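Attaching the record inline, Q. Sequence:
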Amino acid sequence: MAAGPQSAATGRIRHRWAVLVGVSTVLFAAGCAAQATESEPLRLSRQYFADNNIAAAQGPQAQQEFFRRTQHPDFLGQNCELGETTVEIDPASSTLRPDPEFAPDGIRPRGDIWAIGVEVTTRMADSITGHQIGSLHLVLLDGRMHGFAPCPAR
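Structure, as predicted:
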């Protein structure tokens, strides 16, 4: 017995539904799949800012030690004393980008140079003394992220 027009149409509809269900399943699974691992510069920059903010929360001496420890080795003599000021930095991670032309005082630091948009809040004795949005530079050198200690305007 030959299939009639109605059973052929029903077969096409079932086939289309099967395709739709299959495609939907694949798209759903792709959306639920683990995100790609973040790049080393992004991971290290996030850790740098997290460590900075932990040091800031611990007080001026802890933060000064953080800046001393993470200062780029080509600029070790350029640390500034911040006194009782702490510096909290909130990065906009999606803005991290290479900046190979960065050369403070005409000196290009060794390593891979990165720029990132940040929101900076300075505090003294738990009172906000400054708030600014701008960009900072970090340098990936020998598997570590280095920065440039801030110096207050004189």
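Helices lie at 5-32, 40-58, 60-70. The two ends are 97 Å apart (CA to CA).

More tomorrow.
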